[in-house]
Specification:
There is one protein chain. With 264 residues, the protein is α+β, with helices and mostly antiparallel strands. The chain contains four helices and 14 strands. The protein folds into two domains: 88 residues, Alpha-Beta Plaits (2-Layer Sandwich); 147 residues, Porin (Beta Barrel), CATH 2.40.160.20. It is elongated and about 60 Å long.
Length: 264
Amino acid sequence: MEFLVGFEINVPEGAAEAEVTDRQHAEASAAARLAAEGRLVRVWKRPLASGETEVLGLYRADTESQLEGWLGALPLHEWMNVTVTALEPHPNDPAAVRPSSGLPESDGSAQLPEPRLSLVYRLEATLGRPIDLGETFEGHRRIVPLTGGTFTGPELSGKLVPGASADWQRVLPDGSSIADLRYTLQTDEGTPLYVRARGVRHGSPEVLARLGRGENVDASEYTFRTSTQIGTAAAELDWLNKGVFISVGGRQPAGVIYDTYLVG
């Protein structure tokens, strides 16, 4: 079942600023966790006549009581006025009408939700001098150290840990590269994150040659994508261990940028 949930947040007078900030951060982490588990589908803001805003969330739950249990565990729940509206399918819903995929028609029970992307963080990293191994039995190998940088996102921010981060690349004859990224992040709270990403960077020979010369090439001129895994021992970030992520990369003359998204 799907539910539209409205939230009006009323911070009590006299609440300490540090407590408000801590609860807001915890609320953002809880929302990201619910999204990773497929429970929170979308979130919007609706301006109110008073000048304040109401938050609207689209949730999926088996029952309304199950949803109430999730909402009751939110860090800001005691400061919220919550309204829940149960939704039912409509025959004219555009999302229910999909282009033909060539698959056999079903009774609707096999209809699957469309994936959605939510930004987790942007990492801007500096690069060290590559170590070119040359032609090995696995092909042309190159190791590119990630020497520093920072990452920022709606729920996570921090720095890249140098000495524990690099891209063990395989370079193809046409200049494309197969990425095997392993890097370590540390959140502002001091929590370490282990990231493993595998993917490919490819484009026209002219564009790849410009990248090879260290020129500043717009990321729209080539494709740089990875599938990404994030691991942590922190219980409050366990949703990272269970999430499916993709990253979009962009090479710069002295560094690289990765935007990492949660697939919901």
